[in-house]
Specification:
This protein has 15 helices and ten strands. It is an alpha+beta fold.
Length: about 350
């Protein structure tokens, strides 16, 4: 709470918000951090926005020396064996910093049982970082280098070495290449964009992210491969791509849409096509309208908005995903050319 108060930008549009729930403490203060979140977590650097207020709390014994507050919060949560805190920034609807402190056990009972059934006592032979990575893959369905770095204060090089080591030991299965590489537990591989759009059957070789929500029985998966290869691409009444592997329709091409629905999407993007210099907020509002109710590919957005794909990704889509405004169809493959976006 002290960190929230001394780092808040009191000229900002947002208010300070503190939430207490049985499973979480949440802190929001207006203004972005003056030190990058990853450096704040490691500690040692600080640029306090309200120095006199900070000094006041120090004098009554309620504050920490500069640069030590966030690391102390993280170490306290680690000591209690709770989930790693999430510290992040948002730009929409206004600039703000958020800290989520989950009081849920680091390894829920069902995850402990899952890890025991998969690996037995071998799991406990892993070091602390390796256990954290494998547990996160079990809880969240997948993990990558960036997410792994968020879980620890160790150097990113340690994470770089740990991930392939876990693959070699059989604790993780990798997919993707280089910066697009992600990892999951054996038998729990998530469908790739290629799996979805080539209409291949991969469910037989994987479990869904939530084991309790399996939607395919073995009887559904006994068709011959030759029959599957001939199966037509499924589309809804508007011409959007449909797959049982993703939770929403997917606008992958404009020319497969019905004439009426294509005209509707074109009308939504008309302002962007007509005005080359459109302010950022207006463009983001247009993108949200286009992404509502389905996933939509970058190539389709490129045509509807008359903007280059690189510009769309860097200036709009990536920040909107970071701010929680948009979700990706394949978050574990963020750089896939087949990526799609939908409103949260």
């Amino acid at each position: 709470m002290v960190n929230t108060l001394v780092h808040a930008d009191y000229t900002g549009r947002s208010s300070i918000l503190i939430v207490k729930r049985p499973d979480l403490f949440g802190f929001r203060n207006p203004g972005l951090m003056r030190v990058p979140p990853e450096l704040a977590v490691k500690g040692g650097e600080s640029d306090c926005r309200n120095r006199r207020m900070h000094q006041m709390f120090l004098m009554i014994g309620a504050g920490e020396r500069a640069g030590s507050g966030v690391p102390k919060i993280y170490s306290g949560w680690k000591w209690a064996n709770w989930r790693t805190p999430k510290l992040y920034e948002k730009h929409i609807p206004s600039e703000q910093t958020l800290l989520e402190l989950s009081t849920v056990s680091l390894i829920p009972k069902e995850i402990t049982e899952l890890l025991a059934s998969l690996f037995g006592d071998a799991f406990y032979s892993l070091n602390e970082l390796e256990q954290m990575i494998v547990t996160t893959a079990a809880i969240e369905g997948w993990v990558n280098h960036e997410r792994s770095c968020q879980l620890t204060s160790k150097h990113s090089r340690d994470v770089t070495l740990a991930l392939p080591r876990l693959v070699d030991k059989g604790f993780l299965v990798s997919s993707g290449e280089k910066k697009d590489k992600s990892y999951s537990l054996p038998g729990m591989e998530l469908p790739s964009p290629e799996d979805v759009f080539t209409n291949t059957l991969t469910q037989f070789n994987r479990l869904t992210h939530n084991v309790d929500n399996l939607t395919h029985t073995v009887d559904n998966l006994t068709h011959k491969g030759s029959e599957l290869d001939k199966s037509p691409v499924k589309r809804d009444e508007k011409g959007r791509f449909i797959s049982e592997m993703i939770d929403k329709p997917f606008v992958d091409k404009l020319d497969t849409l019905t004439e009426f629905y294509r005209a509707e999407l074109n009308a939504l993007g008309a302002t962007a096509r007509e005005q080359r210099r459109l302010d950022v907020d207006t463009m983001k509002q247009i993108i949200c309208r286009l992404c509502k109710g389905h996933y939509i590919s970058v190539s389709v957005l490129e045509a509807l908005l008359d903007r280059k794909p690189q510009s769309l990704r860097q200036n709009y889509l990536k920040p909107m995903v970071s701010d929680g405004v948009l979700n990706m169809a394949f978050p574990y493959k963020p750089n896939s050319p087949m990526q799609g976006y939908t409103t949260s």
